[in-house]
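Session log. Operator J.P. requested a structure for one protein chain; no other inputs attached. Running the standard single-chain path with token output.
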Amino acid sequence: MQIAGLQKLTLLDYPQHTACTVFLPGCNFRCHYCHNPELVLPECIKEQAEHFINEADFFAFLEQRKGLLEGVCVTGGEPTIHAGLRDFLRKIKEMGFKVKLDTNGSHPKILEKILAENLVDYVAMDVKAAPDSYANFVGISHQEEKTLVANLEKSRDLIAKSGIDYEFRTTLINGHHDEEEFAAILEFVRNSEKLYLQNFRGGEGCIDPDWEKYGGFSDDQLLKRQQQAQQNVRFCGVRT
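Structure written below.
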């Protein structure tokens, strides 16, 4: 498994658990507002490859953290594009750690196998936009959007019915997530256990420089959307 980075301790990424976060390179999306080109764009990944962490070194690190860390967050990029993901997760679980997986939901067949094999304890799936707006957000063609949305719906249902802890999360961008867009997102996650809203931070570094001019919402606007969401899901939180 290629490992692009490791955050040795996080108290935020895995709710209610001390954990580390491991970053896997590569993604099948090109979200215009993404601030992590080093994990997404092939040319940037290639430049960073000499600094990647050896898998054996990563597991040696985990061995040293037994009894200190409770879990491992596996994020990207998009982890489900990696053929060796299930074996990687299995090794972590066999060491006694809980596993949280971050995903964009685009590969339900992989996710189904991961859930069936009990390889994760928590899943966080990004819901980036209303179903009919995905092409505008993630850099795919409108012809591809229908297939993608069907996959997202399958992943949503798999996660919601899995019996494990999970969350859906949306990064709100002022100028793109208007009331109509947000209402469609809420309909997509209706009756889910948890939805977290994250505020977009603009500025330099977006994959698409044209999106750097956008920002997030005010505290009052976020509160309004949180209150609106709580009518559709069992819990809605805000991460700023």
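Operator note: The first strand starts at residue 5 and ends at 10.
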